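tool_call: predict_structure(chain=1)
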Amino acid sequence: SHDRIEELAALRTLIEVELASRALPRAHMALIERLQTINNGLTDMIQHQDPVGYIRTNLEFHRTLYLRAQAPAMLAMTETVWLQFGPTMRQHYGRLKRKALPPYHRMIIAALKAGDEPGLRLAVRSDVTQGLKMLLS
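tool_result:
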């Protein structure tokens, strides 16, 4: 239901913004390069119209960043929310004919490079809330 999606998105926003913020002091160039590589993989998934690959790669991007937070309980909670979103995401992305990546992962990477915590928090929040808008449309 719409209410359930909004509830799960609110949880994602709260937890994922905090995880990203905690990861920032531990971010290094190897992590940033890995995130760029993963994000490039999303482009391949879009070109091949592979919704399962897109979802899997998108979650890999987020999980790779959040692992740096060294907050296993928060990450476990996030993964539980992702699992609850799974069927809805699969159904939605299967009918979405996306042509290009949204800008939010690039914004996340740029904020990590700059050490910009407010920018990182905004980029993660925007990524999650934009996904919510797509699921509810």
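agent: Residues 32 and 86 are 26 Å apart (CA to CA). Proceeding to next step.
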